Amino acid sequence: MLFLSRHAPHLQPWQRDIIEIVRAEMLYFVPQMQTKTMNEGWACLDSNSLLLTKMGFIRYKALHDLLAKNEPIAVGSGGGILIKSLIGIFAITLPLFAYVLGVG
């Protein structure tokens, strides 16, 4: 939309303003669009789901049991992220999301 508002040769100023308004509204919803897949993915998680850890693939129930015993475990590929406690699904979701974004 930004490209259209800046480079469309036949738009009048008021039309460019409308496109910029629509773009600004669209940008407001970008974070919701980016997290939708992650949120729906965790909604589908059950005890038989496989997760990649430094120990290889393990079932979510096994990960849950390890965390319940206060055993830290690295989840994810490469260096992964270290999860140290069991606070429900958020113990995994927030660090994984930061890891995926490259900020964690």
The geometry reads as rod-shaped
Spatial sequence of strands, sheet with the most strands: 1-2
| Poorly predicted sequence stretches spanning 5 or more consecutive residues | none
Count of beta strands? 4
Supply the helix-strand structural class.
Answer: alpha+beta
Return the average pLDDT rounded to an integer.
75
> Roughly what percent helix?
40-55%
- What fraction of residues sit in β-strands? 5-15%
Instruction: Give me the Rg, rounded.
Output: 21 Å
Brief synopsis:
It contains 5 helices and 4 strands, in the order αααββαββα. Strand 1 and strand 2 (56-59) form a beta hairpin.
Characterization of this structure:
The chain has about 100 residues and is an alpha+beta fold. It folds into 2 domains: about 1-45; about 45-104, no CATH class. The chain is built from 5 helices and 4 strands. The chain has helices at about 1-5, 15-30, 30-45, 60-70, 90-100; strands at about 50-55, 55-60, 75, 80-85. The strands form 2 sheets. Strands 1-2 form a two-stranded antiparallel ribbon. Strands 3-4 form a two-stranded antiparallel sheet. Strand 1 (about 50-55) and strand 2 form a beta hairpin. The longest helix is centred in the first third of the chain and has 16 residues, at about 15-30. The protein is rod-shaped, with a radius of gyration of 21 Å.
